[in-house]
Specification:
2 copies of one chain form a homodimer.
Chain A: H1 3-10, H2 36-43, E1 47-51, E2 56-58, E3 66-72, E4 75-80, E5 86-92, E6 97-98, E7 109-112, E8 116-122, H3 123-132, H4 134-160, H5 163-177, E9 192-195, H6 200-207, H7 211-223, E10 228-230, E11 234-237, H8 240-247
Antiparallel strand pairs in A: 1-8, 2-7, 3-6, 3-8, 4-5, 4-7, 9-11, 10-11
Helix pairs in contact in A: 3-4, 5-7, 5-8, 6-7
Chain B binds a DNA duplex (30 and 30 nucleotides) through helix 7.
DNA sequence: CGGTCGGTTGACGCTTATCAATTCTCGTGG
DNA sequence: CCACGAGAATTGATAAGCGTCAACCGACCG
């Protein structure tokens, strides 16, 4: 048995047979930069893994040993201060690439916030592929630029927005990223329903607030009719326009 | 006269003769990825410009028309909300690259916060150079990764740090970036003195605070003996260790 | 059935914003 | 050279928004 497969097993993970041709993300994310032949090559060097919620993909300060394409679920990137204060500095959705190219250490950890499925590969594979397929580097670069933009959007949110606006911003962002659950019948308003994969604690850590403040602001948005809460972290947004307004005031 | 040179003149800018061989940044920034021959080629297509404090290099929403290497001075990147709230999302120091590769629009503006000197070139030149010198793309990519890291560090600051810690963090960061003015004689403590190129308003916009709070926290750091203020935005840090402690609490 | 965890709600206090007045700095022109 | 004015910075008084502490509810699991 392959050594990597073995390591996965021992970590309680479940490697699956891996055929890029059947992968839903093969034309998205960084894989979109590869030809069919290249995808076949990649298939021999990657492992599809399921990761349960709460498990750590990459710990703060640990050497980068591997990378992954996110296929399903949500991953949070977070930083902690010496005294325990914590801040989530990014959320990743499919088909994002997870990991830091070129082995620069970066002081952050990546953790699954829901059941997650990734296509993972060791560091050497990425480096090898980068050398041989220049389109890949461009693709990674572009994603990094998008992440930089998103980080800067959140800087604006954390620096200048009120608690209510921040919560609205988060819900708005997730609504835009998640494959819309129920876009409702055409005749009705633009009602959207989806699963919010974050706990109140995660939301607070992302928004630079406390659990209590997040909870209060959500109640407020509910009373205002901007969101509807359904059991099991389901959120319904009856009118995206109104939510969008709450994002900026 | 070259058309570009003409445009510069008309904008009140002063193009200078441009010899990469004599440039102080030729081995740093993205130029460090180029050979002597390539630098000579680049020299024919760039213009060294001086830009006065307050002038805008790239306005929010405007199409990216050109790029620049920062040779001297400091540039701020900022975002504004519809109602005027403003947030600085990044500061750039020499020899940083200024501008957004691949023409993605990004909703931010770049403005000189001190007298600035840049080596600028039109968009087409960057694209052309990128195609012909693959090391260049890597270099740009690496800088973008550093910027992403810095943005995430500030997310932690804005989300979780107190006003005092934020102000200390900013002073600390500038102290690390600015070519140290007076490292003092070897026998003494590690005293550092430098110019803080930001107004209180800029600092506030960067730290997500108000002018008044920034001012109060600086007075406090002064009373604690962590910083010394000298006329003309000169700051002296008698002991970097103590400042570093203030950064995290 | 009790225990834990996630979430909500309330009372209170602290940090920071807001409003306002004053001082400082520096460039300009008399 | 000094007076003047405008913008930058400081300081004070007050208020608001969010954090802290604590009680409580409901779901889930052993």
């Amino acid at each position: 048995m392959d050594k990597r497969v073995e390591r996965c097993k021992s970590a309680g993970l479940e490697p699956a047979p891996n055929l890029c041709e059947a992968c839903t993300a093969r034309h998205r994310g960084i894989c979109g930069a590869l030809s069919d032949a290249e995808l076949r090559e990649l298939a021999t060097r990657t492992i599809k893994r399921k990761i349960e919620s709460g498990r750590t993909l990459q710990a703060d300060g640990e050497l980068v040993s591997g990378y992954a394409n996110l296929l399903q679920g949500v991953v949070k990137l977070s930083k902690v201060m010496a005294d325990g204060r914590q801040q989530i500095v990014g959320l990743q959705f499919p088909p994002d690439f997870v990991g830091r190219p070129f082995g620069r250490e970066s002081r952050l950890s990546a953790e699954a916030v829901s059941a997650v499925e990734v296509c993972s590969f060791p560091r050497a594979v990425l480096e090898d592929m980068l050398e041989r397929h220049s389109g890949l580097e461009r693709r990674l670069f572009e994603q990094t630029l998008v992440e930089l933009d998103e980080a800067r959007d959140w800087l604006l949110a954390l620096g200048r927005k009120t608690a209510r606006e921040r919560v609205a911003s988060l819900i708005y962002m997730v609504a835009k990223h998640i494959p819309a659950g129920t876009p409702r019948e055409a005749g009705e308003r633009t009602s959207v329903q989806f699963d919010l994969p974050l706990t109140r604690a995660d939301m607070a850590d992302f928004l630079g607030l406390t659990i209590e403040t997040v909870s209060r602001q959500i109640t407020r948005l509910r009373q205002e009719g901007i969101v509807d809460l359904h059991p099991g972290r389901q959120i319904e947004v009856p009118d995206m326009e109104r939510l969008a307004k709450a994002v900026e005031g």
